[in-house]
Amino acid sequence: MTSQPEKRDMPLSPHLQIYKPQMTSILSILHRGTGVVLYFGTLLFVLWLTLLSSGPESYACAKSWLKSPIGYLFLMGWSFSLFYHLANGIRHLAWDLGHGYDLKTAENSGKIVIICAISFSVFSWALGFVWGKIWS
């Protein structure tokens, strides 16, 4: 009869024991992600402009897609990405000037970036819906 080895609690990999995600690392990853979203959103914007110049039928097709729930979701994500990337870019400019490196300031400026991105996105969409109702 063969005995089975005892099951031992194996240690975790060191990076899983030591590393905790920090606000600065999460915001850095989000900055890169929003850059990718802005890239593809710009390609779709160029496609929209092309369809706009192609005639009323093409524009109607693009407009119907953009007014769908998926279109709105994409546009909201694109606008959030724009405002987040802008606010975090300003934060990086402050870092380039040598300001805001201490941990408390970096975390506070990160919170400000998130608040600004959300606030500007909500404000721009609210303004867009109000102007859309006025001008339509």
From TrEMBL:
Membrane-crossing residue ranges in chain numbering: 29-50, 70-91, 112-131
Location of this chain's protein in the cell: Membrane
Classification via Pfam families: Sdh_cyt
Cofactor requirements of the protein: heme
Primary localization: membrane
Gene3D superfamilies: Fumarate reductase/succinate dehydrogenase, transmembrane subunit
Entry keywords, A to Z: Heme, Iron, Membrane, Metal-binding, Transmembrane, Transmembrane helix
Topological relation to the membrane, as annotated: Multi-pass membrane protein
Protein family per UniProt: Belongs to the cytochrome b560 family.
Protein task: Membrane-anchoring subunit of succinate dehydrogenase (SDH).
Database matches in NCBIfam families: succ_dehyd_cytB
Subunit structure: Part of an enzyme complex containing four subunits: a flavoprotein, an iron-sulfur protein, plus two membrane-anchoring proteins, SdhC and SdhD. The complex can form homotrimers.
Protein name per its UniProtKB record: Succinate dehydrogenase cytochrome b556 subunit
